[in-house]
Write a structure and sequence with these properties.
Elements lengths: L1 H30 L17 H4 L15 H12 L1
Length: 80
């Protein structure tokens, strides 16, 4: 009895959540019927490189050469 009640409550809650997800945004947009005009100004953003990369520029990419056995293992894994 306890699990049936719990599953029923969870099912109803799930339906309510799903209905709110889909019907909520539609109702919010339908309620907004006023149009407002605002002046749009272009935004100029200047960002320094040291702010974007605080730890400095990383080195070049490394490369690990695989031997024949490792290459065969990779091909076997991909084929599986």
């Amino acid at each position: 009895m306890n699990t049936i009640l719990r599953k029923s409550i969870l099912g109803i809650a799930g339906l309510a959540f799903t209905g709110g997800v889909f019907a909520g945004p539609v109702a919010a947009h339908a309620a907004d019927t006023t149009t407002t005009t605002t002046s749009v100004k272009p935004v100029s953003v200047s960002v320094q490189g040291d702010k974007l990369i605080p730890h400095g520029v990383q080195g070049t990419q490394s490369r690990i050469d695989l031997n024949d056995e490792q290459t065969a293992n990779v091909k076997a894994i991909i084929a599986a």
